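Could you help me review a protein record that somebody else here produced? This is what I was given.
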Amino acid sequence: MRRTLLVGLVVMLLTLLLAPLAQAATLLSYGSTGSEVVTVQTELAQLGYDVGTVDGIFGSKTLAAVKSFQSTHNLVADGIVGPLTSQTLTKALRDKNTQGIISTAQSLTGVPYLWGGATPSGFDCSGYTQFVFGKNGITLLRSSTQQYTMGTPIDFVNLLPGDLVFFNFIQGQTISHVGIYLGNNQFISATTSKGVTTYSFSPYWTNAYVGARRVY
């Protein structure tokens, strides 16, 4: 019994001692180099911050960009990329991508359905999603079945605008339709009956719903 308690105490102490070291290892600051710096520089540049050359070197321009980003998002502007700054950066980039995707998707409302279509002259469902995401720098596979293999599975209650939503209306198939979630229980997709149109999750769609994927 005493031995078990002693082992447990040692494990707890090691956890407490090593946790700060593990956290420190994730920090990026002036002088840091490597692929993680490239990621931060790329994300900042996509958000419109001037990082200079994306070269994996955390120099003065990257430092200024990080501080500017932190200040804009009400973080401590210390120029250090820790967990909170990293999470905020990821969220800001997703928000920007989402705005572009939703804007592009809705701008195509009314485009007619065309089997095999993947341009504004006419879309099928997966050609439409592929085109919308492609216009925003995100590459999707061509068919709805293929798109269902991409990204991360998302539960219905956790849907966010920009997620891909999938349905099946054909016996013997897994996926036969895909759309883009808009929020407020609505999605937009290219259907054979109405072309590119916004729909609510009515019983018709809910009964055919298969799942969702987050690809960015």
In short: The helical segments are 2-25, 35-46, 60-72, 83-107, 125-135, 144-147, 203-208. The beta strands are 118-119, 122-123, 152-154, 164-167, 177-183, 186-191, 195-200, 209-214. The two ends are 50 Å apart (CA to CA).
